[in-house]
Design a protein that fits this description.
The complex is a heterodimer of chains A (about 110) and B (about 110). Chain A is mainly β. Chain A has no helices and eleven strands. Classes of the chains: A mainly beta (about 110), B mainly beta (about 110).
């Protein structure tokens, strides 16, 4: 059974800092891995999707990498801003189901 | 303006009542999903449907029921058999259910049992 873990559970950084969020998974037989952003009381917004054959994806200040052999993905946020404050969730797709981590709560202080 | 809508945004239920959460999408997606989110936890899959008139149980289907009579609609009923229904419920859809399909989420419904 796939298990997804996100470390750290919470992170507080000053504005402008570069940061890395970590996601690990136990079963490397995945189709893809998605990173989502969730604002308090809201739904999920898809940030990046990495197919199993890819190593990384980039969108603006965000870069996500995938290492299937080690069961790890990282989300790199460059030059963080207060508007980046949210919960970040990663999820792996295996079979028909997305399996989610518990998320990392990010606070960027101005 | 394409997207996924969920209603209501907030729902209060008395003990022993069944309630139905609405999910509608106009993205022409075949697959739809229901997830439950509890504080400090990731999302857990309740039910999913890959095509009209067909659906499968997810990891925590007990106490819930669904129907998929139309492509654009996938309502979730929380029955009185669900022991701890207070949670945030999220609906999602994707073009298909295969590995290359990105899931898109609605804004969620917060259910509270009084």
């Amino acid at each position: 059974k796939q298990e997804v873990t996100q470390i750290p559970a919470a992170l507080s950084v000053p504005e402008g800092e570069n940061l890395v969020l970590n996601c690990s998974f136990t079963d490397s037989a995945i189709y893809n891995l998605q990173w989502f952003r969730q604002d308090p009381g809201k739904g999920l917004t898809s940030l990046l999707l990495i197919q199993s054959s890819q190593r990384e994806q980039t969108s603006g200040r965000l870069n996500a990498s995938l290492d299937k052999s080690s069961g790890r993905s990282t989300l790199y946020i460059a030059a963080s801003q207060p508007g980046d404050s949210a919960t970040y969730l990663c999820a792996t797709l295996a079979g028909d189901k997305l399996v989610f981590g518990a998320g990392t709560i990010l606070r960027v202080k101005s | 303006d394409g997207g996924i809508t969920q209603s209501p945004k907030y729902l209060f239920r008395k003990e022993g009542q069944n309630v139905t959460l609405s999910c509608e999408q106009n993205l022409n997606h075949d697959a739809m999903y229901w997830y439950r989110q509890d504080p400090g936890q990731g999302l857990r899959l309740i039910y999913y449907s890959q095509i009209v008139n067909d659906f499968q149980k997810g990891d925590i289907a007990e106490g819930y029921s669904v129907s998929r009579e139309k492509k654009e609609s996938f309502p979730l009923t929380v029955t009185s058999a669900q022991k701890n229904p207070t949670a945030f419920y999220l609906c999602a859809s994707s073009i298909g259910s295969g590995g290359y399909n990105e899931q898109f989420f609605g804004p969620g419904t917060r259910l509270t049992v009084l």
